[in-house]
Design goal:
Largest sheet: 2 strands, parallel
Strand order of the largest sheet: 1-2
Number of helices: 3
CATH topology of one domain: Rossmann fold
Strand content: 5-15%
Distance between the termini: 31 Å
Structural class: alpha/beta
CATH superfamily of one domain: NAD(P)-binding Rossmann-like Domain
């Protein structure tokens, strides 16, 4: 199992909890909000395991801001992290999954995607 994130300390904490429960995990740090960052994370995961069988997209950004505090730059950051990160990894993994003849892609979203707070821009 690969554990990805942007914060090395938090990644290590998850990896350690998995190990304590008898599992095995490898940490990979990187930012999926850019094409190069996502490509690097996928490449590292692929090399570590010789391929990917299951991709779980769960990256997301959240900042509690009202509509009037949310700028176009903030919207871009949310979109790059919450949407395009998944697209980048799906495009990277799909070819490998097809070649392997098996695989799964799971996309996870927040409940805020379907039931946002009234005062928030998400």
């Amino acid at each position: 199992m690969l554990v990805h994130g942007r914060d090395a300390r938090r990644i290590r904490g998850v990896v350690d909890r998995i190990a304590a429960a008898g599992g095995q995990a490898m940490p990979v740090q990187g930012d999926l909000a850019s094409d190069n960052g996502a490509a690097a994370v996928y490449s590292e995961a692929r090399m570590a395991f010789g391929g990917i069988d299951i991709l779980i997209n769960n990256a997301g950004a959240y900042e509690a801001r009202t509509w009037f505090e949310t700028t176009p730059a903030t919207w871009r950051m949310f979109f790059e992290t919450d949407v395009l990160s998944a697209v980048r990894l799906i495009l990277a993994a799909a070819q490998d999954l097809r070649q392997a003849g098996w695989g799964r892609i799971i996309n996870v979203a927040t409940g805020m995607a379907t039931t946002p707070q009234v005062v928030m821009a998400d």
